[in-house]
User: Fold this.
Amino acid sequence: MKKMLFGTLTLMVAIGLMVIGGVYTEAVAQTFNLKLAHHLPPMHQQHSRVFVPWAKELEKRTEGRVKVRIFSSQQLGTAFEMYDLLLSGTADISMVQPPLSRGRFPLDEIFHLPFFIPGDTGDPVGGPIRTALYEKYLMPIHFKDVKGLWTGRFGLNVIHTTKKPIRTMEDIKGMVIGVPGGRNLTKLIQVVGGSPESSHVNEMYTNLERGIIDGQSIPMEAMVAFKLVEIVKYVTRVNAGGATFLVAMSSKTWNSLPPDIQKTIEDMGPWAEGIQAKAWAGATGYSVMAAKKAGIELIEFSPEERARWVEIAKPIDAEWVKDMDAKGFPASEMYQLAEQMMSK
Assistant:
């Protein structure tokens, strides 16, 4: 009888150990190691003050079940390839900048209309408009094959020049101005008399230094992040349009995550946009301070001069809406929604 009891207890202990071992194995299997790719340098605020703290916070909220390794500076692919990195599985998460893939995500061009949607990523008017347009149009039309985590917007474009200041429309005539992407910004440079030249962010320092271009259209925050403070002499605060970006996850990766982790990531979207807004505002302010310290002249248009630029750019809006509508996109509807939100 004792032998039978001992045998039964031994069997129960063995089964218990197997169950515990199975649970332990399952827990280990539920650790997710994700790769996040972007094209910006490590000193850029989006890397150091948004992606790094976001990854740490995600690991904390999931109690170590999700770990994110960040690949900056185009380590996994170029800035032009960030969306395809998600589709191929090369990256689990990436920062997609639509205008770099020319013609692929045309509805994003509404944010590049020169003087239409205001502000950068944390703007109290432009921010809600960006969220609404992405949720209602861009995600279901352009980005349905990935999971959107949050969105943002670069600062409005200013013009950095190395030799000649731009104070009026007449000053820009004949000048070669680099543009990082987006046909509407290119059109603006053309209509005010400049000569637009493709110049990506990773090329603009060299292009300016070598005199390949006379100026570069890029947000103010690039002054420090891309070291333009070393070579630029003037900044004209045109404040014309601004590129948006989407932080997205591969659908395959998203579908592999358990529901509780998916909920945690979704809940962190507003948190990420919040720290992002502070980071970008801080970077712009720091760039202004660094420019002044370096003796760079910051040029503001007079009200009369700004009105001239706004007026000459109006046909760009109408042409874009007409072109997109003709191609079957709901551009008029998008434009009207943005106007309604701005009028409130």
